Amino acid sequence: MSLPLSREEMLNTLLQSYSAYFDTERCEEEDWDVPLVARCNFYVHSEKYVLLKKAKLWSADCNEYVYLFSLPELTEERYRECEKFVYEKGMARIHPEPGHMYTYLTAVFLCDSCTPEARKALKRCRLYKSFRFSLYGWMDFHTVLLQAGSDLVDTNRSGRSNAKL
């Protein structure tokens, strides 16, 4: 039987898991009005060419930006603030151009307790944007909620793959 993990232990475990493939960094900036504690960035560039690199057939850039938030209680108002923060910061980092395939923006919330309204808002989050009818790729927004002392992981429909992590 495992003991319930605290928020700090969950954060350390997540950062250790993400560090295998992501560039991870802890955030210490107090300028933001949101409880951001860490960011993880993932970049992949693939391309196919014939004989020479100048004869490129195709290329694809795939990115994922994960924002980890830690707070004692997640309320709907606090959730909306963090969601807006991730969307604005993430969209500023996206450069839709030929070769851009997709970018995932992921908001992970570590909390001790969560209001039913916040849980409902998190599960109903459906932010998606295509760039030039998906010719220049798309953006999908994932949300994940981890509550200390519970094995339950809540996600929106897009974030289900993150629950496995």
Describe this structure in words.
- Helices cover 26% and strands 41% of the residues.
- Strands 1, 2, 3, 4, 5, 6 and 7 form a seven-stranded mixed β-sheet that branches.
- By secondary structure, the chain is an alpha/beta fold.
- It contains four helices and seven strands, in the order H-E-E-E-H-E-H-E-E-E-H.
- The mean pLDDT is 88.
- It starts with 6 loop residues before the first helix and ends with a helix.
- Helix 2 (76-93) runs parallel beside helix 3.
- It is elongated.
- The protein has helices at 7-18, 76-93, 116-124, 160-163, and strands at residues 23-26, 36-49, 56-74, 100-114, 128-130, 138-147, 153-155.
Major beta-sheet overview: 7 strands, mixed
Distance between the termini: 20 Å
Shape: elongated
Unreliable stretches (pLDDT < 50, length at least 5) are none
Structural class: alpha/beta
Helix content: 25-40%
* Rg, nearest Å: 17 Å
Average pLDDT confidence is 88
Helix-strand pattern, N to C?
HEEEHEHEEEH
Can you lay out the helices and strands and say which pair or pack?
Elements: H1 7-18, E1 23-26, E2 36-49, E3 56-74, H2 76-93, E4 100-114, H3 116-124, E5 128-130, E6 138-147, E7 153-155, H4 160-163
Parallel strand pairs: 3-4, 4-6
Antiparallel strand pairs: 1-2, 2-3, 5-6, 6-7
